[in-house]
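Q: Structure tokens for this one, please.
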Amino acid sequence: QVQLVESGGGLVQAGGSLTLACAASGSFASINDMGWYRQVPGKQRELVARITRGGRTNYADSVKGRFTISRDNAKNTVYLQMERLEPEDTAVYYCTADAVVLLIPVAFWGQGTQVNVSS
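A: Here is the predicted structure, written as tokens:
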């Protein structure tokens, strides 16, 4: 099994910044893609950003230029630096990791961390 533990959520004023972190632990051979998704009540979970093991990234259009995803492969940790936050960024943010377990890639999810942006 793989455990993903997120940290860094909280309350911030519009225009402010937050950095989320997600550390993976457990039994796995390696981790391929990692990413962040977010969800608000009544809506589907949506992609925020993803990053490959080699560092290639992709972002949702709504966060391009404001959010930066990065990872530390040695620590099995992915980060999401969020700047110029907007009230529309308020959501529960979930970390995901594609871990190779017994030669099979499996997607794992964190428990989520709440981000609230006040206007």
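A few notes: The chain has a mean pLDDT of 96. The longest strand covers residues 91-101.
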